[in-house]
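Tutorial sheet, problem 5. The two components below are modelled jointly, 682 residues in total.
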Amino acid sequence: MTRIELSKDRVGELEQKISKSKEVFQQAFERFDSKDTRLIWSGGKDSTLTLWICRQLCKETGIELPKAFTIDEGDAFEEIDTFLHKYADQWNVRLEWGRNDDVLKAAERQLKAEVKVADLNERNQAEIKRIGFDLEVFPFEAESYVGNHLMKTVVFNTYLEANSVKAVFQGLRWDEQAARAQDPYVEDIEAGDLTPGHSRFRPILHFSERDVWDTTRYFGIPYCSLYETGYRSLGAKTTSSKMGDQPAWEQDLENTEERAGRRQDKEKTMERLRQLGYM
Amino acid sequence: MKHVMLFTIDTLRRDVLGLYGNKQGYTPFLDSLAPDSVVFTRAHSVAPYTQASFPGILSSSYIFDTPRSPKLSEKRTLVSEALKSASGAGSVTTAAFHSNPYLSGYFGWNRGWDSFYDSMQDDVDDMSPYIKGDMLNGKVDQWLETVDTGRPLFLWVHYMDVHEPYVPQRRYVERVDASVNLTPEQMYGLFKDTILPRDVSDRSKVDLLRKLYQAHVCEVDEYARQLFGVLDKHGVLADSTVIVTTDHGEEFAEHGGLSHDGKMYSELVHVPQLIVNPPEGTGTICDNLVSGLDFSPPVLQLFGMNSHASFQGTSLFPLSEYPKQGVYGEAIGKLAHKVKDTDRPSYFYREGSLKVIYRQEEDRWELFDLEQDPREKENLIASSPHAESMKAQLQPRINRETL
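Model answer (structure tokens):
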């Protein structure tokens, strides 16, 4: 990874953004013991930057680096797996993996396999009812409506509960998608029937996609090789595609949708219709 | 005018707007546009819900002109496509910003746009399952920063904020009725328990729902003000003709239901429509019967182009040459989305003050005189001397559907 050069002003800007992020971490560590927090690390550029900033702060303050948590949704890029293992080792990060074994087993880890709801355990069945899905089978896809819920949301909630996690750090950004544009730095989530109460801290909300790349490439922060080949946003393997042949940072970041390479799938559209009272 | 903008607000009833006589002051901004506009008093959408109405707005065609399909037929030409094909080398820049899943790329509505944002990749929550107007305004702002505004632009912006579920913020509820004191969860409960089953048995709940809807109208008016501000900031407003309308209205138990299903009554199909900075008629009120087919033809005309061969409507301008004798509508005649009661069509035809409606499911005809009976309560089909001639207008349309 070659480091880029930036103007002094630009570096100053980025440093300011980093210190803002550190303040968010500080707030979290004032409220919670680091042991009770987790950093959500998907291996993407945003969560890797979040982790890098967290490590810096922990080195400066002597706070113990929180454990990291990643979700295996059964449809991951090998490149991301490799990246996570490599830097968890190099950076001494205690990385824990979560997965919905029950669903993976029912689908025999085969994408597109039909999963029979009746084959799932009680918790998964309850979760499917909870999101208003009333068919007997669904296709196993990590980013479909049911898939996303079972493979990510449920795994996340179960992990928080089992480990008594009180707060998580998320690498979300305001400019990543319109739905994020008003997210707060800190959000306290109340406990629900199937959701444990916890707080969410979002230290890099104010970084634009350009800021992330400039910071990453100026400070020599590692990133997954897929970005070099044209991916801008990494989701599940089968639903993410390249947005060009140039590296992400050479694409027109300001005028194109970062997540356009994520598949616009039928399930997502159908889910919106359901929410509006149709279907 | 150099640019054209189509600004559609999903599910907007005509009678909530001050410019159509509502005295509650929900829409000060939209009302303030009237002096710069031609305001149409008798505009009709071609259908009472999005999938059947938008083919009229964006492709000047009726729902049954092509075989039924959830996806937009390749046989239809969107106004964006017509602009791109007519202008060769792309001399008109086209852009769309909306958050309605029925109009998403998945269903084929992304054709012909240089920029197309339908929000389907974004995360939303159950209580407002769409990207709100102010965020769409932000997208428009960003887009205007990047395009060459010296060249003609065609911009379509569509808001979802008055569509159910109605979970308005407190400050908007206060503008309608400060005594309404519901938590967001309670408001959402009304959606689940009253709107979805179309339960109108408790009138107090219907009244409450109407108020929550009106609160969202207040909200939309603010976003509309912002949007015009964005256009002004980029110096394009003064050079733009802006068409403001909706795809359909909303029912609050006028004919036994809620929301917008396959009925052809006025609360659903008699819609608001104004054109800001029109080529003629600024500051006037136009009583022409106007069809929801007649948006795409004037858009091409405003850019100095001929209409497209596939468009069934005509241009609105010159207004004096637009004396439509009557307007038609058609849709699948479902009485509720949740209940698969019928997939047979229903139709309407309006001429003068008369409106005839035919529901194929029950083989039922209705005729109303909207001047005498604006609420469409008294069916004159057996008594009116005009019944047969009005029925004759609809007859050729019935069963013409190619399945």
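Marking note: The longest strand of chain B covers residues 37-44. Full credit if you identified this.
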